[in-house]
Amino acid sequence: MKLLKNQALPEKTSFILIGNINDFSIFNFSKNEEQYIRESLAKRQPLIAVNQFERWILTAAFENREAKTATFENARREATKFLSFILSHKIDKICVVDLDNQQDKVLSFLEGLISASYQFVKYFKNSSEQQSCLREIQIFSPNISENSLSELEILMETVYKVRDLINEPPTRMKVSHLTESFKNWGNEAGFSVKILDKSQIIAEKMGGLLAVNQGSFDEPAFVVMEYKPENCKNSQPIVLVGKGIVFDAGGLSLKETKNSMDYMKSDMSGAATVAGILFALAKNKIPLNVVALVPATDNKPSATAYMPGDIIEMRNGLFVEVLNCDAEGRLILADALSYAKDFSPLLVVDIATLTGAVINALGTFASAMFSNADKNLIQNLRESSEKTYERFVEFPLWEEYEKMLKSDVADMKNIGDGRAGMFAGAKFLERFVSYPWIHLDIAGTAFLHSQENYLPKGATAYGVRLLYHFLKTFLN
Length: 476
Prior knowledge:
By secondary structure, this protein is of the alpha/beta class. The chain is 35% helix and 20% strand. It folds into two domains: 143 residues, Leucine Aminopeptidase, subunit E, domain 1 (3-Layer(aba) Sandwich); 322 residues, 3-Layer(aba) Sandwich (Aminopeptidase). The strands form four sheets. Strands 7, 8, 9, 10, 11, 14, 15, 16 and 18 form a nine-stranded mixed β-sheet that branches. Strand 3 and strand 4 form a beta hairpin. The two termini are 30 Å apart.
């Protein structure tokens, strides 16, 4: 979606007016139109439409909320209603007019409008007929800079890229396709991409990744991506780790198909997200040193698949008793978290569709967060969460949960006792970290089965906007 800043109001382009209309004359309203708008504003109608034949004028009369972050989210949600009107009237170009010089509110509206405009239509025979009519958004605002619009455009381009990757069908998103996509992103944005093949993964003693890959016809990969501009502010890198299970059948602990395995193309959402964050940081030239690690494989049943009862030696030397082959994400992430230590990281953030338990606890409205990091850092993340409305709930890493992972035959087992599943997953990962660390379980927020406001059905790209905003706070 192209964003263009205008220095003057275009004559024949349809408008969306955001804010209070103090001067009706500049829009050439007739007396009847002006009266209609005033009456509609008095009734607090959220969308007011005036047909001037050559253009529509739409007035966004949505209310400010007590909290600014709620006002911004309200603007995103209201944008969805305006998009419905735009599509139903086949409007291909719109000019958003900032009447009150409220930069953040207008940018949030644009964010919601672009997000809601996303489509995944490449597998329709007549895909061009399915595509949205809206192609261009112009902005008339005294305070919104071209840099702000460019940053937003790149961020939403990234969201689209991440959604596209996650929405791809499994046969078209094998490990080789995933790594090739990351190489292309790196070449386009300007970050390095190194792919460790199976022999190198063996040399690194990544027992978790190798075990999960045993049932696959395709070899695993371990992807190391790094964005390190010359003017970066941090000598120690921030490391992002994303779960890269390109399809999760559950291995020999086979999943049910309905409402489970049929959506497991999305189990690489964490991988797509961390690569996307690097893409956005690099294209927007944010001066941070950030590394992204992705252990990638599928998890399928076969004669060679790893089995319940197996014991795996992990990269850090711990032995893990496997009691459920569908608890595979933590096994590949654990090796990646061990590898992250080699970078002497300032902070490590892992993001993964890790447990079904988080969906039972929080639904699709928030992710679960566990951390050992400094409270000020977590407060920064919470503020970014509120600003972007990519929300999370923080849960504790109490030592009592450690008992759930106790094994009689190895250092630990890969599942708990059937209760508090997201705690078991987080406590498992904690055994592999020795640095400031944040874990985001996004199983409920990464992929939706129906549209929710400006978030589409399917992949949401949860975490891209949240962590991009959060990482920028390191510059303050």
